[in-house]
Amino acid sequence: MQPDSNHYFVYICGGEPDKNLQIGTAGNLQQHLQQMQSQNNTQSKKLVYYEHYDREAMALARERQIKESSPNDNYRLIESMNPNWLDLSDLL
Predict the structure, then answer these.
(1) pTM for this structure?
(2) CB 9 within 8 A of CB 25
(3) Entry's InterPro entries (predicted)?
(4) Which of 17, 24, 66, 70 is the most buried (most CB within 10 A)?
């Protein structure tokens, strides 16, 4: 999906279940992931879940909702889209 001002993503990066998850938002998810990798912030984490929104406020509200959820709820959310915890960055 080509980034522009009407694309906002909520994402979850992680290596595997029972590990720390990184939850955030980005306007240009591909660029954001590349930047995180170049800064070595991902520590072998991969994109395991994302949602697309056309309004930034909606994406930020969803990010907050996911962050306030329990780890088990977040694992179930990831597995609903990506049961094998594959790296989804190639799908962008």
Answers:
(1) 0.86
(2) yes
(3) GIY-YIG_endonuc_sf, Phage_T5_Orf172_DNA-bd
(4) 66
The tokens describing 19, both together, are: 């590990």
Q: What are 23's strand-pairing partners?
A: 12
Using DSSP's 3-state secondary structure scheme, residue 72 falls into helix
Per-residue pLDDT tens digits for 13-31: 987 766 789 999 999 999 9
Cα–Cα dist 63/17, whole Å: 19
> Which homologous superfamily does the CATH classification assign to the domain defined by 8-91?
GIY-YIG endonuclease (3.40.1440.10)
Any idea where the domains of the chain sit in the sequence? 8-91
The pLDDT tens digits of the residues spanning 29-64 come to: 999 988 887 776 545 579 999 999 999 999 999 999
